[in-house]
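> forwarded from #structure-qc
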């Protein structure tokens, strides 16, 4: 590719046609689209200066010169670009942007010495800018100075070690070397690149290629598994060779995997996500070598003036014609009565190539038939590909929306029309298939009503997108069943809007309780606010919240315009003067904000059809764009208001095109990917206008995308729709709800963000510190619920031993199909867990343990007891640590004098897996293919031959391993479909006919991490064939499996100990890792703790810090209520405990009694500490007879102990603290 670039570039320099070079040039790039259509007319620039101060005029001139220079650079009009950047340097000699882009211009001219000279000047201004050094390295690469290029790139990495383009460039340079050192360096930098750009498929595939050729097959499997989780659904051909590669890697003939991987790799190379990834890393190639600088310096004159002047340095230019949208406007018609065409436009990068595409429909007022367009963005110009892409339907269309309803990573298209909805599934190849019948989204004729507004959002927080359609009557809620079908559930979910004409709707967490609510505005009735009660239920609360209004509403926009962390609302009206800006009061209510009186006065004579929040000048404050019609002849109906940051807005509509008088619908996007937001406007006359933002990118910005994990997780929808994203940069705080894949934050004069927190729709937070300007953030698959962690003193330090109280899952839905949700039992967990003696040693006459709450859950710890078990050294002891429901088994200690291992072990594909299950070595049996959800895999077999033994003596089978479980929301999703079920492990034996027959229907599964399941095989074998087959689709990883004789008993001595001291305090969160590699359990390092607030805690009263010993000595409903980050230190006295006899050793059992309730979005009462559990309750959520005991002793306990209040504000306040995440890491001595 490098040779091709040189050839094209040099032919351009000699004025030779590119075609003569004999190689392919690909002219497209994220930052390059600034711009064949962006050439400024001088008059436009001059009009911008009217009424400005001298500094503002100079700043505007710099912005104009920069943009014009970049446009010429894009057009390969290099002489013109040179002239503009020389002018820029004259205007701003201390600004690096001019020298860097002039150097890039000379590079593309082939004037390498001149390029080097200018780039060195830019580096002197800012030696730490990696983008400048990247251009200089390209100059050296073009002159075959490989070592100098590498040196420049390495210098750039010193200040920006995660700079993606630099890492890619240096890895490619090392790939040209044939020596061992170059190969090692290429691998090193490719690994760093994968870490810095985990969502980009290109570097990961390159790394896999390196590793598979080296024979690092285990790591290859790991990367391929990651790839499948985060990449959009593979094509049929690619999936075939992916599976062949994985099969070969798990077989003895692993070397055969290379050929199938190469074919798989090649199939991905032609996919749009791969091509977009290549452009992200190296630009479009061909003559457009190198990446230009776009943003001004943080402390530059232009940046400073722009931050003060705001809209004075910004201009919106009508780019409709240059973008090719005249094809739409030329087709509109007027009716015979003078009625005008109706149009709408929606935006999406449906083909995943990094460009924003459009769907437009214009309805003929006479025939009431819509003409539609699927406009593919090709180098900044739109081309209609509707017919070619399979968009073929007729009817009167009223709205549409792009969304990934099947979580395959591609944006599908829903059309709302009078004749019934049309659902098109994106096939991932640039086309669409009509799945209306399959999805059941096409309304029956009797149920049809004109649709106004569709929204895709995960209303029940089960990981997939549900559909809301606001209509002229009887709104619809279609629940996604996760099997490709939908079920209408408006009434069942609590929505009642039979006779309401819903004109607009928005979603978001309006009461900041962690779940998604929906607000809708009606023209013929009051507005509606439906608050999410979880488990798929909503209650209407508009009047109580102060949002009901008086009707006549026309549209609504949601956004945090005062940057306090809570979503506010702007509601418009068909009645001029009835528009309202509602400020969220942070207590579940809203008030009409009177501060923006000027804004409301300006709109006093406007019938508003649509409004949007938009940060058009990248200052970090949400501005407002309004589209409507004036009630006065020739009056203005389109307005732009700038947020002044003090609750007031200034009318800056003068920066919009002067001839723009009215509008019906608004869409926002960064059309040319230059870092500021452009506006699409559907007019009242059926036209579509593209208003390009010129100058908004004088303020810095952050662009991002979210990537939810697919296979083996599926907890969140692929693009993170509905997630809450918070950003902090110095003292600037912002938040927004994700409504589309592309997320944009302006950050003003700040050069970068300090931290971003994503709260995914499943409630799990994810922090990213010092993110890059343009980045995709992949969901981290983290353990969010498990049970209390137990750390024990091993003589030197506290170490993680086990998780306890695993039998309790208060309010856990079970994933059983049916009309009502079925929940787990309400009994307190009461279990014994083995602690090996080497993990618990005496310290100062005590046995100390730590019980920590580190996940998203509340614990109610009622009793803790330690049991010392002395036994001969030649004997091991075990307790059955499998999950079971009540009544729980009494304590039984199993003794094993000799372990008998299977003589053979094979998996479903016949692979020999004996080595994985014979050693207690943290090497776990994995390698099975995951299903859609975490906790569920393909149905698989483990066939063991136990060998010869006397069937008369009987035997126990011991299986040690761990489980990665489903969670409440996954179970809730499973209850909606019959396509996938959880199958508990069963055990089969061979009958007299040689067939497998059921012996034990459910042998159980481990209660968490490194637990032992025990099965009694006595009398289970009908023949001398002692093979067994264990079948399940649960995500269980076995470490060791053996059998032992049943009727051999060994002497034991047991000592039961109650705690003598207990203290509750805040500690934080231990560093997590995977013990034993990718198939090992989540494990924790007690010595490294992060004290930063982590979870959105369940609200309510927790046990106060201090002495809590009286709460642990009896199972009496007087328990410790612990929050995430809390630690309970417990001591057991060793005084009076005899030493083990000679030849004996001591192990321990820990008994714990209590309940655990996780904060999952679909756990019953999963957002609050209440209702409190108690012994004897029959169900949770509590039934009518489950009344908390009215006991004076319990009242006194609650009054004295449970006084520590945690509320929903704490989660928000923690992030807004400037020290968030920076002060928290502590390493124990």
């Amino acid at each position: 590719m490098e040779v091709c670039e040189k050839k094209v570039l040099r032919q351009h320099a000699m004025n030779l046609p590119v075609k003569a070079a004999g190689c392919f040039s690909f002219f497209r790039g994220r930052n390059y689209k600034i711009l064949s259509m962006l050439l400024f007319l001088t008059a436009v620039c001059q009009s911008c200066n009217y009424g400005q101060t001298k500094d503002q005029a100079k700043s505007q001139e710099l912005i104009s010169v920069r943009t014009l220079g970049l446009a010429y650079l894009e057009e390969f009009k290099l002489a013109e670009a040179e002239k503009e950047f020389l002018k820029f340097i004259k205007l701003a000699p201390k600004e690096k942007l001019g020298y860097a882009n002039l150097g890039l211009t000379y590079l593309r001219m082939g004037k390498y010495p001149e390029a080097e000279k200018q780039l060195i000047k830019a580096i002197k201004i800012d030696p730490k800018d990696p983008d400048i050094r990247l251009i200089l390295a390209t100059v050296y690469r073009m002159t075959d100075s490989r070592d100098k290029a590498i040196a420049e790139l390495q210098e750039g990495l010193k200040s920006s070690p995660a700079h993606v383009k630099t890492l890619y460039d240096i890895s490619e340079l090392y790939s040209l070397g044939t020596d061992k050192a170059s190969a090692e360096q290429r691998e090193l930098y490719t690994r760093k690149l994968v870490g810095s750009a985990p969502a980009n498929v290109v570097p990961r595939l390159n790394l896999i290629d390196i590793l598979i050729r080296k024979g690092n097959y285990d790591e290859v499997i790991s990367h391929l598994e990651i790839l499948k989780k985060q990449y959009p659904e593979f094509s049929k051909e690619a999936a075939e060779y992916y599976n062949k590669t994985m099969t070969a890697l798990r077989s003895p003939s692993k070397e055969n995997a290379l050929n199938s991987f190469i074919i798989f790799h090649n199939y991905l190379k032609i996919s749009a996500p791969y091509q977009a990834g290549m452009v992200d890393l190296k630009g479009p190639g061909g003559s457009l070598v190198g990446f230009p600088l776009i943003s001004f310096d943080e402390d530059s004159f232009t940046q400073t003036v722009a931050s003060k002047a705001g809209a004075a340095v910004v201009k919106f230019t009508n780019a409709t014609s240059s973008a090719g949208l005249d094809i739409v406007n030329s087709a509109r018609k007027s009716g015979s009565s003078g009625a005008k065409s109706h149009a709408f436009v929606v935006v999406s990068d449906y083909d995943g190539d990094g460009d924003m595409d459009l769907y437009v429909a214009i309805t003929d007022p006479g025939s009431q038939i819509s003409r539609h367009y699927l406009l593919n963005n090709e180098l900044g110009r739109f081309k209609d590909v509707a017919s070619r892409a399979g968009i073929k339907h007729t009817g009167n269309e009223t709205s549409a929306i792009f969304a990934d309803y099947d979580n395959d990573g591609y944006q599908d298209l829903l059309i709302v029309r009078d004749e019934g909805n049309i659902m098109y599934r994106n096939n991932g190849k640039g086309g669409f298939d009509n799945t209306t019948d399959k999805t059941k989204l096409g309304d029956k004729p009797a149920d049809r009503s004109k649709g106004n507004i569709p929204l895709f959002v995960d209303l029940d927080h089960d990981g997939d997108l549900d559909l809301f359609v606001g209509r002229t009557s009887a709104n619809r809620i279609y629940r996604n069943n996760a099997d490709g079908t939908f079920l209408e559930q408006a009434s069942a979910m609590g929505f009642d809007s039979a006779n309401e004409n819903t004109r607009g709707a928005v979603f978001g967490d309006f009461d900041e309780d962690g779940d998604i609510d929906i607000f809708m505005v009606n023209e013929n009735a009051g507005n509606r606010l439906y608050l999410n009660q979880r488990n798929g239920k909503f209650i209407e609360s508009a009047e109580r919240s102060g949002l009901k209004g008086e009707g006549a509403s026309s549209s609504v926009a949601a956004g945090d315009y005062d940057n306090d962390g809570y979503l506010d609302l702007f509601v418009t009206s068909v009645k001029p003067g009835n528009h309202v800006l509602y400020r969220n009061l942070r207590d579940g209510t809203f008030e009409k904000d009177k501060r923006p009186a000027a804004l409301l006065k300006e709109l006093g004579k406007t019938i508003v059809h649509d409004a949007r929040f938009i940060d058009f000048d990248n200052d970090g404050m949400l501005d407002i764009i309004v589209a409507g019609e004036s009630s006065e002849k020739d009056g203005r109906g389109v307005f732009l208001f700038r947020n002044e940051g003090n609750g007031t807005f200034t009318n800056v509509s003068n920066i919009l095109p002067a001839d723009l008088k009215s509008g019906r619908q608004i869409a926002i996007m960064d059309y040319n990917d230059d870092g500021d937001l452009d506006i699409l406007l559907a007019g009242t006359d059926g036209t579509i206008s593209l208003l390009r933002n010129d100058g908004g990118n004088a303020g810095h910005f952050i662009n991002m995308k979210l990537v939810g994990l697919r296979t083996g997780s599926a907890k969140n929808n692929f693009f993170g729709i509905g997630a809450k994203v918070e950003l902090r940069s110095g003292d600037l705080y912002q938040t927004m709800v994700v409504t589309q894949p592309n997320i944009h934050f302006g950050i003003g004069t700040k050069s970068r963000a300090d931290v971003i927190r994503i709260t995914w729709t499943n409630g799990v937070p994810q922090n990213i510190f010092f993110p890059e300007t343009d980045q995709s953030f992949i969901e981290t698959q983290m353990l969010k619920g498990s049970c209390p962690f137990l750390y024990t003193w091993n003589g030197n330090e506290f170490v993680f031993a086990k998780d306890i109280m695993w039998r309790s899952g208060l309010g856990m839905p079970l994933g059983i199909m049916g009309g009502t949700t079925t929940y787990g039992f309400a009994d307190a967990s009461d279990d014994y867990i083995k602690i090996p003696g080497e993990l618990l040693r005496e310290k100062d006459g005590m046995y100390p343990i730590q019980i920590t709450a580190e996940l998203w859950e509340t614990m109610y710890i009622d009793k803790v007891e330690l049991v010392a078990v002395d036994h001969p050294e030649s004997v091991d002891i075990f307790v059955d640590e499998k999950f079971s429901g009540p009544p729980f088994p009494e304590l039984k200690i199993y003794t094993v004098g000799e372990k008998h291992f299977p003589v053979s072990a094979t998996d479903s594909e016949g692979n020999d897996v004996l080595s994985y299950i014979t050693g207690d070595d943290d090497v776990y049996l994995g390698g099975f293919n995951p299903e859609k959800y975490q906790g569920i895999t393909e149905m698989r077999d483990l066939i063991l031959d136990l060998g010869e033994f006397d069937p008369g003596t009987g035997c126990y089978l011991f299986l040690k391993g761990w489980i990665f479980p489903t969670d409440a929301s996954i179970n809730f999703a499973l209850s909606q479909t019959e396509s996938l079920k959880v199958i508990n492990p069963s055990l089969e034996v061979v009958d007299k006919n040689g067939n497998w027959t059921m012996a034990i229907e459910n042998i159980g599964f481990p209660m968490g991490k490194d637990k032992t399941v025990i099965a009694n095989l006595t009398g289970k074998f009908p023949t001398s064939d002692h093979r067994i087959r264990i079948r399940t689709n649960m995500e269980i990883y076995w470490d060791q499996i053996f059998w032992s004789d049943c009727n051999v008993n060994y002497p034991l001595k047991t000592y039961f100990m109650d705690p003598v001291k207990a203290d509750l305090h805040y500690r934080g969160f231990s560093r997590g890792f995977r013990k034993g590699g990718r198939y090992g359990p989540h494990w924790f390092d007690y010595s490294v703790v992060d004290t930063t607030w982590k979870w959105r805690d369940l609200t309510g009263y927790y046990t106060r810090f201090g002495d809590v010993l009286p709460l642990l000595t009896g199972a009496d409903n007087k328990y410790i209520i612990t929050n995430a980050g809390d630690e309970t230190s417990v001591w057991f006295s060793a005084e009076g405990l005899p030493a083990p006899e000679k030849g004996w050793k001591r192990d321990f059992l820990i008994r714990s009694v209590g309940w655990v309730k996780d904060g999952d979005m679909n756990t019953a009462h999963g957002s609050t500490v209440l209702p409190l559990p108690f012994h004897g309750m029959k169900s949770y959520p509590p039934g009518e007879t489950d009344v908390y005991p009215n006991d004076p002793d319990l009242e006194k306990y609650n009054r004295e102990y449970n006084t520590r209040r945690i509320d929903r504000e704490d989660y928000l306040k923690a992030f807004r603290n400037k020290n968030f995440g920076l002060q928290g890491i502590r390493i124990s001595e």
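QC bot note: The first strand starts at residue 315 and ends at 318. The radius of gyration is 33 Å.
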